[in-house]
Amino acid sequence: xxxxxxxxxxxxxxxxxxxxxxxxxxxxxxxxxxxxxxxxxxxxxxxxxxxxxxxxxxxxxxxxxxxxxxxxxxxxxxxxxxxxxxxxxxxxxxxxxxxxxxxxxxxxxxxxxxxxxxxxxxxxxxxxxxxxxxxxxxxxxxxxxxxxxxxxx
Length: 153
Ligand SMILES: [Zn+2]
Ligand SMILES: [Zn+2]
Description:
Helices cover 11% and strands 37% of the residues. The chain is mainly beta. It has one domain (17-152): Metal Binding Protein, Guanine Nucleotide Exchange Factor, Chain A. A hairpin with a 5-residue loop joins strand 7 and strand 8 (104-109). The protein binds zinc ion (2 copies).
């Protein structure tokens, strides 16, 4: 039997795009992102009050990625969402998180689910593009500093 490529991959995916993988703290939720989308994503730091509260941090760190490039793997049973209507933007943010370990996974704006705000902390260290934009910077604490060269909104 010859060792042809068609044995390796299903038809139509002879050269599957490379992916970047991330996961929540307990591993129940695994995330795969097409590498070009990952590397080309805008990295946004968001200082809005509901990002602070939901993440337990002063800013959320998000890759803004077209949702079609993201695959959620693992059992997925622990994935839950919170419909956050009390936001600084006035939009409804649907915040997806792992209900077993509490890791935030991604946020989408209700009605604009084609764009995901994927939490950077899911991915291995030193794999991320530098932040390019900071949102709700008016909320910065006096000791916080903006990243160099970012767009400030
Ligand atoms: Zn988890
Ligand atoms: Zn926010």
